[in-house]
Design brief:
Largest sheet: 11 strands, mixed
Strand content: 5-15%
Mean pLDDT: 93
Distance between the termini: 41 Å
Order of helices and strands: HHHHEHHEHEEEHEHEEHEHEHHHHEHEEH
Strand order of the largest sheet: 1-3-2-6-8-7-12-13-11-9-10
Bound molecules: 2-acetamido-2-deoxy-beta-D-glucopyranose
Structural class: alpha/beta
Number of helices: 17
Radius of gyration: 22 Å
Low-confidence stretches: none
């Protein structure tokens, strides 16, 4: 049974969705813009390959950085994913790398250990903090704020030799699933510009999907890495909570509990780069096992959707088929064991609300304290926003209203759902163990039209569940749907078994081709 108060919200959303059918029909008929095809073969190498080619002097860092800058320039006119670039500085840094390699007497292997990403371009979600670059994170009240230093994860990547070329777009303070805010143009999906690139790491998703980035840094508190990865057909990994430091991320919270849910993680076009990036960004105090995994010892669990209840979002048949195909392929090609077990996925919405939104001092758009005298009344701001005269985006305010919905759940019920989540977590821990993965939809459909996520927020529970439980989860692209839009699935493992997600991602990439050009 769905919680009654929550049911009312879902009902209101369904009514809104019906009222908006003509609008969405109309925008779906609008002509789309097509991004040009990739014409430079350099753009088809993984970051792992690129760094190898730089180390063995087959390619220069300058050639590669220039290839990416040219690609960004061509696609961003259409996609609007870049908040600010640092093309000139990046080129100068690339020349420095090439100069260093001319006189350096380290062997290729020593270079690989010391600078695994030497000379390779990366893109950075604006909220992750790149020194000297825009750090407004889509908030009108933060316009002009510049990052004073690199976030720790970004710093680690730069110390490994990576060269950041830009910071990319997000919704206001990352608090929504579409990258649309009041200070930057709306980011589009490269596979269909009338659809959203999702969010909050939507700028990263759009650039990666279009081949204008090879590896990117994203962050995820409720699907913000995995949804853009899904909608733009690339890989995105939400790591185990707290294995990658999130220091420098904006927004953050004085409440340390947020770190159980908010993570920074890699977004890539090729599966092999997931482990490479994660290893670099990981807290050096941790000793995780990065050895190759023998997939024949793998146990594969799967489920097509959340437990059926009134208004539970139904997984599209193409995505169901992607799960079936993946299960079958792991069985056939990796000798994995297929397991059948019914995890209790009822009331996942309520579990998520009770746990995440119950936290005190969780970020919201109205907390923006740069101008404390500004109005802070949520519903008044929503009204103003609908009249285009609020300083806050409708997306951010809407998200805040959702955060409020947990008032519909009584304290007693809240404790009940927290306990239910704990039981589910223990069941997952026991079944997945060291060698198990769980295949599950990332989202029930492929990329939706701009603004459609306003009426589909309950679908994000597919991803949010694993923030709440703290499990690692990789989005893996698995081909296209009947509209030729990218689809894919989540591969979830037990905490600290991130490497298992990566092994399965690589296997599935081998079978189904992974990312493909729009
Ligand atoms: C659909 O895409 C075209 C071209 O990208 C754009 O001009 C138009 O505004 C889009 N329609 C909507 C409703 O976003
Ligand atoms: C799977 O098992 C078969 C038969 O036991 C064996 O021939 C094959 O090499 C195995 N494949 C893998 C990838 O382990
Ligand atoms: C953090 O949130 C929890 C509820 O999840 C609350 O008990 C705790 O007091 C909060 N801590 C701070 C510093 O706000």
């Amino acid at each position: 049974m769905v919680e009654f108060g929550y049911l009312l919200i879902l009902l209101a959303q369904k009514i809104l969705a019906v009222l908006l059918i003509p609008y969405f029909w109309w925008i779906s008929k609008k002509p789309k813009k097509i991004i040009p095809k990739i014409d430079n073969p350099i753009l088809f190498y993984s970051a792992t390959k690129l760094s190898e080619k730089i180390r063995n002097r087959e390619l220069t860092s300058e050639q590669i950085i220039k290839a990416y800058i040219d690609r960004v320039k061509v696609v961003d006119i259409i996609l609007k994913a870049v908040v600010q670039n640092r093309f000139d500085i990046a080129l100068a840094e690339a020349k420095n790398v090439d100069g260093y390699l001319k006189s350096c007497d380290l062997t290729e292997n020593e270079l690989k250990v010391k600078y695994p990403l030497l000379g390779v371009p990366i893109t950075v979600k604006e909220s992750c903090s790149l020194q000297g670059m825009s750090y407004s994170v889509g908030s009108k009240l933060r316009r002009g704020v510049v990052a004073k230093s690199d976030g720790i994860a970004v710093k680690k990547l730069r110390e490994a030799g990576a060269i950041p070329i830009l910071v990319s777009n997000t919704p206001e303070l990352c608090l929504f699933w579409e990258s649309n805010n009041l200070i930057h143009e709306r980011t589009c999906n490269p596979y269909d510009t009338n659809r959203t690139s999702a969010g909050s790491s939507g700028g990263e998703g759009s650039l990666l999907g279009s081949g204008a980035s090879i590896i990117g840094v994203g962050s995820d508190v409720a699907g913000s890495i995995r949804l853009p990865a899904m909608f733009n057909g690339v890989f995105g990994h939400k790591p185990t909570s707290r294995i990658i430091p999130i220091d420098g991320h904006y927004p953050s919270s004085i409440n340390d509990t947020l770190k159980d849910f908010l993570v920074i993680g890699p977004m890539t076009r090729y599966a092999e780069d997931l482990a490479l990036m994660t290893k670099i960004m990981c807290d050096e105090k941790l000793t995780l096992n990065w050895n190759e995994i023998d997939t024949s010892k793998l146990n594969v669990y799967y489920e097509y959707q959340l437990e059926k209840a009134l208004f539970t979002p139904k997984t599209h048949k193409d995505i169901e088929r992607a799960i079936q195909k993946s299960v079958q392929s792991l069985k056939t090609y990796s000798n994995a064991t297929i397991k059948h077990h019914k995890f209790d996925l009822s009331n996942t919405n309520e579990m998520c609300l009770s746990i995440i939104f119950d936290m005190e001092n969780i970020p919201n758009v109205l907390m923006e304290s740069m101008k404390p005298k500004k109005s802070r009344h949520l519903y008044l701001e929503i009204l103003k926003s609908l009249l285009f005269c609020s300083d806050y985006s409708l997306q951010g305010l809407f998200f805040y209203a959702l955060q409020h919905t947990n008032v519909f759940i009584s304290k007693r019920k809240c404790d009940f759902y927290k306990n239910k989540a704990l039981m589910l977590k223990n069941d997952f821990l026991e079944k997945l163990g060291n060698n198990g993965v769980f295949l599950f939809p990332t989202y029930p459909t492929s990329a939706v039209l701009h603004n459609k996520l306003f009426v589909e927020t309950s679908n994000v529970v597919y991803m949010l569940l694993f923030n709440v439980l703290g499990f690692p989860s990789t989005h893996v692209p698995i081909g296209r749907d009947s509209n030729n839009l990218p689809i894919g699935i989540q591969v979830v493992a037990a905490p600290y078994r991130d490497n298992l997600c990566f092994s399965v991602a690589k296997e599935l990439e081998k079978q189904f081709g992974g990312w493909s050009e729009p």
